Structures are given as structure tokens and as C-alpha cells.
Fold:
Amino acid sequence: MDDMLQTKEAETARNLGKVIAEHKGQHVVVLDLRGLNTWTDFFIISTVTSSTHQQGLQRHIKEFAQAEHVEILRRQRKAPAEDEWNLIDMGNMVVHLMTEKARSFYDLERLWSEAPVLWKSEA
Structure:
């Protein structure tokens, strides 16, 4: 893959992480999964405080995707309890909006500990 395209994709993932943090997503982390799997390049993980907070973040993610011409392929809940874990598949980026409980239980950062951290929020 072209180096310039790889750099642009990484910048887009980093910028999406920043947008989520700007809208009160907590402990946002962008993981670079390139070379570790074949189905996505970046995970963007954020803790949400409520279903209302999660819905607001989804709206901001949708606005970001439209502005950046990034297609949202799929949105779905991954955990059975109400809004514990919502996944937004954007092809080369997958956003995980998780409650603190779900994030602690599934511990994606540990599961993907080999992935370099591309960006991390202060809080």
C-alpha cells in the first residue's frame, strides 16, 4: 500500500479519536492494527457514561464520517445488556463505544496488546 495513503488513513483514525475525546468520550485510545489482522487497520476505543452519551457520540462519528467521506458499513450492539458495547464498522476503522464495565470485562487493549498506540486521550 502507498505510504501516503497509509499516513492519511492513520491521520483520519487519529482525528476521529480526537473528535470522540472532544465530545467527552473517556479514555479514548486509537490502536494501529495494520499487520496484525486482515479485516481492519485501526480500533478506536472509548468509554461512554450513558446511552444518551453514546447516542451523542454516534451522531458526531456520523458527522465526521460524512465530512471525511468515510462510509459507515455497520453499527451494532455487541453486548446483550442495554448499550454496553456498540461497534461502528467503518472498514479500515472500527469504533468501540463501551461502558466502563464492558470495557474492563472485554479488555480489548490487553487482547490487542501487540498493537501500537497511535493516539491516546488525557482522560
